[in-house]
Amino acid sequence: MLKEWLLAEDDQEIAKTRPVLERVPEDKLGWKPHEKSPTMGWLLQHLTDVASWVAPTLQQDTLDLTGFEPPKPATAVGPVLAKFEEEVKKARAALEATDDEALHRIWTMTMGGKTLVEKKKIDVLREFILSHHIHHRAQMGMYLRLNDIPVPAIYGPSADEGSFG
Fold first, then answer.
1. For residue 165, is pLDDT > 60?
2. pLDDT at 9 over 80
3. Based on the structure, what is the number of domains in the chain?
4. Which residues form the domain of 139?
5. Alpha helices, DSSP H only, in the chain?
6. How confident is the model at residue 164 (pLDDT cuts 50, 70, 90)?
7. Residue 22 falls within a domain, yes or no?
């Protein structure tokens, strides 16, 4: 039952993210609204990275961040959109291959031998991945707005699109 819910949620949120990402202009990848904010290119890359977390979360019980280096901001839109689609396919395949029992297994994030997070996989998927994804998609929507780029309808009409997304 959880698996079906996750598949439906993932399908819905990915469908709402595509038009947001597709509107990111190449010439604005370095733009950010404040010196403490990430660039539009970083957000584009990060939304793709978040999509890439689903499969390993389901297929592994531990993630060791020792030696982890944050990804670089996107420098071109096309390749990142292609990578996003590739990661979405991997995520869907991993979700289809899982079962509710596996979703209740504990997943652990470590670094240097220290446990940073220990949660059920279902909680990791909901909190660290799905909610994280939604948060950054909304952030990207604001970046679009601040650059006078039409914001797609997401959960209801936007000021630019009077229809429901």
1. no
2. yes
3. 1
4. 2-146
5. 2-22, 40-51, 54-59, 77-97, 100-103, 121-123, 132-146
6. low
7. yes
